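Q: Hi! First time doing this. I have a protein sequence and I read that you can turn it into a structure. Is that right? Here it is:
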Amino acid sequence: MLLASQRLGLRCCFDERLRDRTVTKITDLKKTGEHGMLKFIGGTAGIIFIIGLIVVIGIFKLLF
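A: Yes, that's right. Below is the predicted 3D structure, encoded as structure tokens:
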């Protein structure tokens, strides 16, 4: 059975490895240009959502 300090140490090592892997993925995204593409797609989806919301609110105002 592991002691509390040993469990904490294992979790610390796991968190460091996970953080390193995440940083590597973000760096890879920036190198390949996918980061900019994802920002563009997200922004476009956001604009379409806002326009759709305005249209739906306008339709409800006309109906009621």
